[in-house]
Design goal:
two-stranded antiparallel ribbon; mainly alpha
Amino acid sequence: MKKKTNPVETVFYGTFLTCGLLSVAFVLGITVYLIISGAPAIAKIGLADFLLGQLWNPSQEQFGILPFILTSVYGMIGAMIVALPIGLLTALFLSKFSGKVASRIIRSAVEMLAGIPSVVYGLVGMIVLVPAIQAAFNLSSGATLLAAIVVLCIMILPYIVNVSTTALDAVPKEYEEGSLALGATETETYFKISVRAASSGIATAAVQGIGRALGEAMAIIMVAGNVANMPDLFGSVRFLTTAIVSEMSYASYGSLHREALFSIGLVLFIFILIVNIILNIIARREVK
């Protein structure tokens, strides 16, 4: 006998399916738009000259974005090197070690950090961090790559903590109880069993952190100096995102300059996509 279909379930199924298809459509739409808008400039400039060129001078039609690429990569790696261990250890503490009161307070603080607008991070960094770096290292200006790394680290930390904590909370208790029954200590169990079981969620946290670090513009433009130099920890630099933000407003419509800015967006999109794919492959191998 054929099972009757519940109309309510059918409606919910159709709604969820539509939302899923819309998400895919948005991604495809953004991808197609960036390719259409960014590819012509790369074709005119030349792929090698565009990606490996070290000079960015729109008035002379010199559009080399290697300084922007390296700065974005160094900034992202620097922020992740600091934020990922701190975020993971904080998540372990919240999920496995902390009491209810401490957990509630720290989780509230982390959620508050996640809700602060990026321009506020940039403003605080410009007023507090930049002068501190200038004084500490005796620099002419504290608006440097180091300042950008510190700001990015603080900004991505809440995302890493929240997603990693959720992943660790979802680890089946049987895994941990079995490890403890075999004689492992709690610390060994949490680091070797729980973290491994939650590796997929932790990889997702890393992806979100990397995406935020690579995609941030407003806070970075306020603390990094926004100068098209090759990356230097104590020098003023410009990221891929800040290059778009700082010049899109005055780039003429239809000009090679404007098309090159769209090409930067395409490069940034592809870069984030590649990082996402690599981390997901690593996470799947860890799970197996």
